[in-house]
Write a structure and sequence with these properties.
Layout lengths: L13 H25 L5 E5 L5 E5 L2
Antiparallel strand pairs: 1-2
């Protein structure tokens, strides 16, 4: 039996939202890297946090 789908909705608590972003950010960057390697594709990922900080990934 698989997991059920989780309803996606905005996290209202700012602290919890920042914690969730921090935990998921590295996973998202890793997925972008894996996609570029597996598909031999050029991938660019730009992320801005709620605090305005920039995170980027680019394959070449």
């Amino acid at each position: 039996m698989g997991r059920g789908r989780v309803e996606l909705k905005r996290i209202e608590n700012k602290i919890n939202r920042q914690v969730t972003f921090s935990k998921r950010r590295n996973g998202l960057l890793k997925k972008a890297y894996e996609l570029s390697v597996l598909c031999d594709a050029e991938v660019a990922l730009i992320i801005f946090s709620n605090r305005g900080k920039l995170y980027e990934f680019g394959s070449s």
